[in-house]
């Protein structure tokens, strides 16, 4: 399934879950269920944001954006993290009001069953988004899926609070459990923002991928002497690599170009690297340390 279709699906799922949770609150009057519904409004907003970001990121490079629009997805992921934090603050506000004026709940069992249906839908869709987001290397879809996971955790915590309140008659448990879940949501939102900012800051690829890049270069650079000043960064689904390749002084331009083409082809096929820039240098540019020594 394409990222665009998944993003559109998130919008419809978000509206369906929001409707069910709002119904659950209306049936019970539970502050915790109201808080759960409030978070679902964020799901709808972030689903729209993810769709816009994915559509922008998919646009080809142009004169104003010669390296493409890949980072648009990171902006969406940051927005989702901020929206999660906002939802947590709204939940804390509602929980405080419920703490000040605790009240008995109406039809708690029926309301919980409706809320359970919404939770199951969210859980299944979160799995779809995260698995497909990782497959398509889409930060926006992964962030949207992780957001739904926090929503599932919220719903579970809310259900526990409502059940305990009903069983004990301590209605104050309803807002207390909602507050605890809100704190967990705050932490989840911060993690999403932190991970997304690393992409906006041109963070290098993982150590595992860097080792694979070294292996590919070493195996495909026959005829070159060394590679140095290797740099990497990732932007959404795109991976950028650039490095200097030292060749013997007698190497012709054609031969050097053939070596570069061979390395580029292997990197793109093996690691699905999007953009590669290789600067060819003569042998007197070789470095004594910190370079990948190649076999001639």
UniProtKB/TrEMBL annotation:
One of its GO terms (biological process) is intracellular zinc ion homeostasis. It comes from Pseudosulfitobacter pseudonitzschiae. The chain crosses the membrane at residues 7-28, 74-92, 112-130, 151-170. The keyword ATP-binding does not apply. Keywords: Membrane, Transmembrane, Transmembrane helix, Transport. It is found in: Membrane. The keyword Membrane applies. The gene is fieF. Residues 207-283 form the Cation efflux protein cytoplasmic domain. Its main location: membrane. Gene3D superfamilies: Cation efflux protein transmembrane domain, Cation efflux protein, cytoplasmic domain. Residues 10-201 form the Cation efflux protein transmembrane domain. GO terms for cellular component: plasma membrane. This is Ferrous-iron efflux pump FieF. Belongs to the cation diffusion facilitator (CDF) transporter (TC 2.A.4) family. InterPro entries: Cation_efflux, Cation_efflux_CTD, Cation_efflux_CTD_sf, Cation_efflux_TM, Cation_efflux_TMD_sf, CDF_Transporter. GO terms for molecular function: cadmium ion transmembrane transporter activity; ferrous iron transmembrane transporter activity; zinc efflux antiporter activity. It comes from the Bacteria. NCBIfam families: CDF (TIGR01297). It is a multi-pass membrane protein.
């Amino acid at each position: 399934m394409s990222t665009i279709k998944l993003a559109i699906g998130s919008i419809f799922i978000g509206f369906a879950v929001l409707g069910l949770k709002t119904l659950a609150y209306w049936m019970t009057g539970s502050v915790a269920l109201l808080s759960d519904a409030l978070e679902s409004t964020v799901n709808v907003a972030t689903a729209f944001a993810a769709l816009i970001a994915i559509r922008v990121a998919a646009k080809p490079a142009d004169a104003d954006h010669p390296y493409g629009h890949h980072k648009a997805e990171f902006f969406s992921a940051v927005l989702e993290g901020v929206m999660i934090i906002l939802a947590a603050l709204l939940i804390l506000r509602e929980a405080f009001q419920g703490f000040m004026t605790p009240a008995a709940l109406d039809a708690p069992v029926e309301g919980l069953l409706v809320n359970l249906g919404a939770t199951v839908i969210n859980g299944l869709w979160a799995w779809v988004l995260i698995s497909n987001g990782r497959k398509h290397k889409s930060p926006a879809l992964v962030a949207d899926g992780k957001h739904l996971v926090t929503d599932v955790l919220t719903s579970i915590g809310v259900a526990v609070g409502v059940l305990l309140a009903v069983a004990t008659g301590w209605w104050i448990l309803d807002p207390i459990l909602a507050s605890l879940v809100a704190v967990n949501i705050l932490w989840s939102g911060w993690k999403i923002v932190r991970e997304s900012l690393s992409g906006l800051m041109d963070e290098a690829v993982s150590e595992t991928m860097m080792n694979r890049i070294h292996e590919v270069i070493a195996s495909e650079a026959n005829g070159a002497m060394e590679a140095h000043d290797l740099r990497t960064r990732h932007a959404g689904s795109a991976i950028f690599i650039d490095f200097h390749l030292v060749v013997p002084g007698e190497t012709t331009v054609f031969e050097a170009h053939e070596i570069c083409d061979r390395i580029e082809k292997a990197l793109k096929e093996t690691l699905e690297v999007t953009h590669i820039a290789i600067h060819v240098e003569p042998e007197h540019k070789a470095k004594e340390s910190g370079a990948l020594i190649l076999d001639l």
